[in-house]
# Entry
Amino acid sequence: MSYPYQIKSFEQYQKDYKRSIEDPAGFWSDIAEHFQWKKKWDNPLNWNFTEPKVEWFKGATLNITENCLDRHLEKMGDIPAIIWEPNDPEEHHRIITYKKLHEKVCQFANVLKNNGVKKGDRVCIYMGMIPELAIAVLACARIGAIHSVVFGGFSAQSIADRLYDAQAEYIITCDGAYRGAKDIPLKSVIDDALIGNRTVKRVIVCTRTRTPVSMIKGRDVWWEDEIKKIETLGLNDCAAEDMEAEDPLFILYTSGSTGKPKGVVHSCAGYMLYTNYTFVNVFQYQPGDIHFCTADIGWITGHSYIVYGPLSAGATTLMFEGVPTWPDAGRFWDIIDKYRVNILYTAPTAIRSLMGFGLGPVHGHDLSSLKILGTVGEPINEEAWHWYHEHIGKGKCPIVDTWWQTETGGILISNLAGVTPAKASWATLPLPGVEPVLVDEKGDEITTMEDGVYKGNLCIKQPWPSILRTTYGDHERCRTNYFATYPNLYFTGDGALKDEQGFYRITGRVDDVLNVSGHRIGTAEVENAINMHSGVVESAVVGYPHEIKGQGIYAFVIYTGSHQQNTHGTADLIRKDLLQTVTRIIGPIAKPDKIQFVSGLPKTRSGKIMRRILRKIAEGEVENLGDTTTLLDPAIVDEIKNGRL
Ligand code: PRX
# Structure
């Protein structure tokens, strides 16, 4: 497959960028010509950010799986689509060619149909990183069902909330999942999530760990049995459903500054185009390259750069079931050596954690196949950037620092590997189609430099093809969250710097959202979970710099009432109870790193918690807390300062 829209020089980038901003409809229409449509569009672009309403390629029909599978069959049917590396290096890996993947997707699409799944139905997918996860996702897309993948680390309660919000009627899961030394009982978590659920009709369970599971008659069926039925019926092909360009492709829940995760909705055509375009350009993919994105498909990175971006480009995508540090910290390097990986795309937190093991685990692995390195999920500190560049890329691989979000569907700001300049810890330049702007609190564009840079809140002026279309079931929430802070702008929630060359550096969230190991967690969500514990009166959660995770979670908790610390054990025991509560309500990823018991929280006279002060204390900046005289009880600040962990 060739990519006529692959940018090959900085001059071409500048030219393409200029055209994309001046004539987005024309620019993206030309790119769209390189995809397979069932019917071409009537109108390439119609939008306003007030409602908001964004429509790309209205009138067109397509199926994304024809672009990811069918169109490659003739010339590339025998090349590997997915290389799967299991958790345990002793277990056999799997290689699935495009032909095989097409067949498996069609078979499973027929399983879904056989079980009553129809176009537009919501299907929750809660699986480990096995090829069947990608197959399940694509099978949904094949028949027009809307997938909602939930990361395997979320709790039963989180799944229950997501099932309810999406009114999902179907679940695809596994008996269990392997993650390093752990064995996660996915089906049993689903069983807990389904207590009291009234919408789910069918649970399809794929075998992986063969952990004992309770299969409920009339509701639960085994994946393998269902496939056998399809084989017996000879239903090995499945016509791809006609999808309108703007039909929803999937929902993916993500945290915001309120307590409830939002179901970000992406549509078929725009998402397909943009993930493909950014995959081909940012990573400068060449036919035959092996692309290894270490994310989980439960996050947007996995959706866009393990599944849809690479497969729509006819690429070979490597899916890894395990974790970077098990059985040892050489796991990634081992995989790169074994498959001669060309592109490695991972998170700064993984780099920092592997850096901590020194160079021992890197030595002895041949990393010479690597051409391009990428990072995503959080700002990368210079030390990690240089380690990655020097010890993994051996000084010869460009690093792409890709900034984007669940809501953006694909990469918005990044250098293009080897084509546009890189700058350590800077995401650098916007992709074609993306027009960023830095604004102040009032929404006015920042026009003066401070210490040699512009500094402000990062917004985007016009829609790119994979911008979120809505938040599921609540369009008003989408408007207020992203389009109401500043009129006519999409607000990212991030702060950024811009230098004189126009390079952007993302400084982090400016709202109450934490970024822990590249995962987004709302402080309000964690507080809600902590407050569920019977002894907790109130809590406040803030982030603090964490060497490996980027940000750690610091919780200030008022714990009192009938459950005094001395009745129910030591502070340490109660901390463990609280961690258990958070694990139950959200999942282990949201567990606070530090819990400090306090007798009160710094509040304004109107009762608002002064998070600014708590943040400074958590960060260890206790000397410079600013004005505390307006507080209801200024004395509380000293108590909190003295008790800092
Ligand atoms: O704060 C930014 C940070 O991650 C947030 C988006 O999180 P999520 O929707 O979970 O998606 C993560 C993977 C795309 C952003 O608002 N972020 C993401 N990439 C970068 C980043 N911060 C700095 N540099 C990046 N490259």
